[in-house]
From TrEMBL:
Protein name stated in the entry: Gluconate 5-dehydrogenase
UniProt cross-references to Pfam families, sorted A to Z: adh_short_C2 (PF13561)
The organism's place on the tree of life at top rank: Bacteria
UniProt entry tagged with the keyword Oxidoreductase: yes
InterPro entries: KR_dom (IPR057326), NAD(P)-bd_dom_sf (IPR036291), Sc_DH/Rdtase_CS (IPR020904), SDR_fam (IPR002347)
SMART domains associated with the record: PKS_KR
Ligase as UniProt keyword: no
Residue span, Ketoreductase domain: 7-186
Keywords: Oxidoreductase
Molecular-function annotations in GO: oxidoreductase activity
Family as reported in the entry's similarity comment: Belongs to the short-chain dehydrogenases/reductases (SDR) family.
């Protein structure tokens, strides 16, 4: 099951963390993976690491917040791979600050990166999927779209809207053979959460709050992604799969 041989997957924000773990998981199932990041040197290092594991990987540097650049890069790589079957739209940014002092420019920047840019690139790729009658689109949502948390007002707003977008896209693209879902990670040890997992007080709180008593790992998200990316998930669309160690299910 979950054989992805012959399929091509684009994973944005995949030079490290959840995105890189996702590329490894999809590649191990036989997919050709296109990894993405803003730094060509870091991205090439990640590609070489994947290649050393026997994974067919291509590096595609672009900044998802530069929509014209992102679309052009995807169009260029499509000349080589001819199609993109799976999109894992994972790139994102964060800004932590109290609501009453949160700068409007930072709010707009975070919402644009985590919502608008995802919408624009995802729609562009969905057009090709529509023409072929098949596709898997998976967005990175967030547990913070379900449970409020201090000091991340822009991120929460963007991810909550993303969850709504998943349902709307699923309804609109179903007749094209495209499923659209999201994964909402709980607290996962990545570069984006470095400040938190380096805080002993926060980690103690987290281990007490999460039923499984630990931080999540990028591989936990990658395993869920493989299911949503596979043909076997053909009857699953418009869903947000929460991967949080039970945090959102308990008081």
């Amino acid at each position: 099951m979950f054989d992805l041989s012959g399929q091509v997957a684009l994973i944005t924000g995949s030079s490290r963390g959840i995105g890189l773990a996702a590329a490894q998981a999809l590649g191990r199932q036989g997919a050709t993976v296109i990894i993405n990041g803003r730094d060509p040197a870091v991205l090439e290092q990640a590609r070489e690491g994947l290649a050393s594991q026997g994974i067919h990987a291509l590096a595609l540097p672009f900044d998802i917040t530069d929509i014209d650049q992102a679309v052009q890069a995807v169009d260029e790589v499509s000349k080589t791979v001819e199609k993109i079957d799976i999109l894992f739209s994972n790139a994102g940014v964060q800004h932590r600050e109290k609501l009453l002092t949160f700068p409007l420019p930072d709010f707009e920047r975070v919402v644009f990166a985590n919502l608008t840019a995802q919408w624009a690139l995802g729609r562009h790729i969905a057009r090709g999927m529509d023409a072929r009658g098949y596709g898997r689109i998976i967005f990175t949502g967030s547990i913070t779209a379900l449970l409020g948390r201090r000091e991340i007002t822009a991120y929460t707003a963007a991810k909550a809207a993303m969850h709504g977008l998943v349902r709307q896209w699923a309804a609109e693209l179903a007749e094209s053979g495209i499923t659209v879902n999201a994964i909402a990670p709980g607290y996962i040890k990545t570069e984006l959460t470095t400040k938190l997992w380096n805080d002993p007080e926060f980690t103690a709180w987290l281990e007490n709050r999460v039923p499984l008593k630990k931080w999540g790992d990028p591989d936990d998200i990658a395993a869920a992604l493989v299911f949503l990316a596979a043909r076997e998930s053909r009857f699953v669309t418009g869903q947000v799969l929460v991967v949080d160690g039970g945090m959102s299910s308990s008081m």
